[in-house]
Design brief:
The chain is an alpha+beta fold. Helices cover 21% and strands 29% of the residues. The protein is built from 2 helices and 8 strands, in the order ββαββββββα. Strand 2, helix 1 and strand 3 form a beta-alpha-beta unit. It comes from Portunus trituberculatus.
Length: 160
């Protein structure tokens, strides 16, 4: 892709029924929204995680076949960051955001509980996470460990 965005598909036990994607969008605006919508139409993802959205309170994704759950930075550095999870409307996915706690690092971590039916009617359950990694600054390793500790705790709690 020309603009440097990265895309990666993931698989898990329900992958033959649910198609996952991840995009680093490097900012959010009308033009980027249109680019993302085109990509989603082409790839036909059911669940997409977007990072580096620079999301702010007043930005939402409207006029698309996806439901948006977004999380912006409020207390830490407001440059960069911002994470979004999109899931396709009418796909039969039950999606619920999981509370990851309240601390500075948690602004860059989102998790949702997803339930869907497989071909034989059995309910598949999974936790889908979105984490915006800190790549610069001296304390990046420490910050990223805290973010993954948050995600690890959430996944462990959902298994219980």
């Amino acid at each position: 892709m020309d603009d440097g965005r990265q895309r990666r598909e993931e698989t898990n036990h329900a992958s033959e029924y649910v198609k996952f994607g991840c995009m680093n969008v490097r900012g959010w605006g009308v033009g980027k929204f249109e680019d993302v919508c085109r990509e989603l139409e082409e790839w036909k993802f059911d669940i997409v995680r977007l990072t580096e959205t620079h999301l702010r309170d007043d930005m939402r994704m409207e006029g698309c076949e996806y439901v948006m759950i977004g999380k912006e930075r409020r207390t830490q550095e407001t440059l960069g960051g911002g994470i979004v999870l999109l899931y396709k409307k009418g796909r039969g996915l039950k999606v619920e955001e999981i509370d990851v706690g309240r601390c500075e690092s948690s602004e860059d971590v989102m998790a949702v509980r997803v339930e869907c039916k497989n071909k034989v009617g059995r309910t598949e359950k999974m936790v889908v996470g979105v984490v915006y990694m800190t790549v610069m600054r001296k304390r990046a390793d420490r910050e990223n460990r805290r973010k993954y500790d948050i995600l690890r705790r959430v996944v462990r709690e959902q298994r219980e």
